[in-house]
């Protein structure tokens, strides 16, 4: 029977190809099987991760439960925060109440409702005014110490200048040495103790209180403590830096002396 050359050629090529791939199969088998094995093992592993026969990756019930738990956690965090806020406020008010009760001064409690936005002043607004017996130049304090003085009153609000205002000053005394001095505002966190003689007995850690030598502030109100002592450029006097006893930048409630 006659066989065409073309058919013989095709059969020969096919035979050579078969022999070639038969030779390569042992070398390709290991990486090929490794590539196929990973997805097969994953599919086999999925049932072990399922609950009630449904994979956790595709369970609508578990997804909804997760959302519910997240909302519940968020609610509990907010409730804890609100509880802490109430507790902290009650603690502050209790301390103010105890101080007011034990103080010989006639005091009216007020809440800080605003801060003056001026760049060169340190002022706050409180929610009590002339209708509550508050007058201008009245001293303002907390159970921790001196805050400042009232500089303007309305019927139901008052403006208070804090002791760190540039225009603020208070006659003071160093408790340990009884040295008289003047505390002045700097518009910064700390105050300046001025007009101390060069030989003044003042040290870091000394407590500073109002001296009562002016009619502005009652005697004995804590102002702060000395943190640093320095000499003036002329070396004729000493001055000191004082850290206020009251955290002036976080005031929320105060007490006003009503004469």
Give an account of the 3D structure.
It is a single chain. The chain contains two helices and 14 strands; from the N terminus they run αββαββββββββββββ. It is of the alpha+beta class. The protein is elongated. The strands form three sheets. A six-stranded antiparallel barrel has the order 3-4-7-6-5-14. Strands 8-9-10-13-12-11 form a six-stranded antiparallel beta barrel. A two-stranded antiparallel sheet has the order 1-2. β12 and β13 form a beta hairpin. It starts with a helix and ends with a strand. It has three domains: 10-57, no CATH class; 59-98; 106-259, Rod shape-determining protein MreC, domain 1 (Thrombin, subunit H, Beta Barrel), CATH 2.40.10.340. The chain has helices at residues 5-45, 60-102; strands at 50-51, 54-55, 107-115, 123-126, 139-141, 146-153, 158-162, 169-174, 180-184, 191-197, 207-210, 222-231, 237-244, 253-257.
